[in-house]
């Protein structure tokens, strides 16, 4: 069983798939214990002039503050960026469609990958691990844990954002997930009997 996890974060000129462009993509691979494998990869992409010109002011300010805007002119093409990211991922995940895509609000990133980096998107499993989902559940079920979660720098650079997502999942794993070795088979079976094969309870 392949237990590797592929973490990806993207920076864009905005969130509109019909007009905005990728400007940075980074990736890290971890094992199931969230140990980072290799150095990762972080690639700046040169966007089309029209996407750059149409960038919303709030996004322009964000990418200016992070320094990303100044790097765009020297960025590579989408094809070059995709190839570089795939080289790193394949070095640690040799079999395609095995490792899930991980990150925060990862559906947004996946939308841009599915549009612009088809080979990369196809190499990943269709399942995702979204740390934002765990965060939202913690807010509702474990509010004390949620409100003590580690602060984020929020510098909006792709590789730094991945590191923060991994740290966030490490925190939630230790704070709310059942400690190792977890329940035995009989206990797990009893829990499953309480929740499986019936409609969820209504409020």
TrEMBL record:
Group of enzyme by EC: hydrolase
Record's subcellular location: Cytoplasm
Entry keyword annotation includes Cytoplasm: yes
GO cellular component, one term: cytoplasm
Domain Exonuclease span(s) in chain numbering: 4-178
Signal peptide coordinates: none
Family that this chain belongs to: Belongs to the oligoribonuclease family.
Protein name (Swiss-Prot/TrEMBL): Oligoribonuclease
Species of the source: Embleya scabrispora
Gene name for this UniProt entry: orn
């Amino acid at each position: 069983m392949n237990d590797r996890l592929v973490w990806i974060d993207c920076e864009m000129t905005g969130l509109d798939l019909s007009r905005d462009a990728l400007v940075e993509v980074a990736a890290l691979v971890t094992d199931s214990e969230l140990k980072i494998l290799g150095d990762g990869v972080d690639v700046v992409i040169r966007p089309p002039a029209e996407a750059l010109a149409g960038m919303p002011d709030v996004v322009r300010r964000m990418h200016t503050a992070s320094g990303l805007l100044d790097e765009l002119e020297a960025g590579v093409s989408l094809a070059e960026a995709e190839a570089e990211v795939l080289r790193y991922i394949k070095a640690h995940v040799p079999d395609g469609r095995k490792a899930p895509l991980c990150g925060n609000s990862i559906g947004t990133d996946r939308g841009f990958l599915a549009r612009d980096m088809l080979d990369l998107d196809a190499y990943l499993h269709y399942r995702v691990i979204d740390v934002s989902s765990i965060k939202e559940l913690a807010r509702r079920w474990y509010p004390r844990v949620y409100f003590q979660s580690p602060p984020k720098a929020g510098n909006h650079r792709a590789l730094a954002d991945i590191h923060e997502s991994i740290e966030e999942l490490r925190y939630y794993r230790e704070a709310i997930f059942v400690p190792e070795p977890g329940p035995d088979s009989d206990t797990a079976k009893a829990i499953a009997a309480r929740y499986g094969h019936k409609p969820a309870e209504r409020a």
